[in-house]
Design goal:
- The protein is mainly alpha-helical.
- It has one domain.
- Helices cover 69% and strands 3% of the residues.
- The chain contains 4 helices and 2 strands; from the N terminus they run αααββα.
- The chain has a two-stranded antiparallel ribbon.
- A hairpin with a 3-residue loop joins strand 1 and strand 2.
- It is globular, with a radius of gyration of 15 Å.
- The mean pLDDT is 94.
Length: 131
C-alpha cells in the first residue's frame, strides 16, 4: 500500500478521534490523538483485505483498539502518571486502563471506520486488496 494512503488514514484517525474525545469529554491528550492515528492506520491495513467483512472488521478492530488502549494506558497512566483516563470505577476493567463497555464502544466505532477505510482506498487509487 502506498505511503499516502497510510498517511491520510493516520491523519483521519488523529483528527477524528481527537474531535470525538473533545465532543464527549471536553478535552483530549496528545497521546490519544497519536493513538487514534495509529489505530486508523492499522484498521486501514486490516480493512484492505478482500475477505474482511464489516462484522469481522468490527470484532478485530475492537480487540486491536482495546489492546493498544491498554498499552498506551499503562504507559500514560501507570508509568508516566499523566492520568489521561481511569476506568477503575467501570465494571470489568483491567487495571483501570480498559473495560468491557469501552471495548463495545470500539466495536461500534469500527463501523464508520470500516467505511472510511473503503472511501480512502477508493479515493487513492485502484490498488488491489490483499487476499
Amino acid at each position: 500500500m502506498k505511503f499516502a494512503q497510510h498517511f491520510f488514514a493516520f491523519l483521519m484517525g488523529y483528527f477524528i478521534y481527537s474531535l470525538v474525545e473533545i465532543i464527549n469529554r471536553g478535552y483530549t491528550h496528545w497521546t490519544m490523538s497519536l493513538t487514534g492515528g495509529i489505530i486508523m492506520m492499522i484498521l486501514y491495513s486490516l480493512n484492505s483485505r478482500r475477505t474482511m467483512t464489516l462484522i469481522k472488521s468490527c470484532f478485530a478492530g475492537s480487540v486491536i483498539i482495546t489492546a493498544v488502549e491498554f498499552a498506551v494506558g499503562v504507559f500514560d497512566n501507570i508509568i508516566m502518571h499523566w492520568n489521561v483516563w481511569d476506568y477503575s470505577d467501570m465494571p470489568f476493567n483491567l487495571l483501570g486502563q480498559i473495560c468491557l463497555l469501552f471495548s463495545c464502544y470500539w466495536f461500534l466505532l469500527c463501523i464508520p471506520a470500516y467505511y472510511l477505510c473503503r472511501l480512502i482506498r477508493n479515493r487513492f487509487g485502484t490498488e488491489k486488496q490483499i487476499s
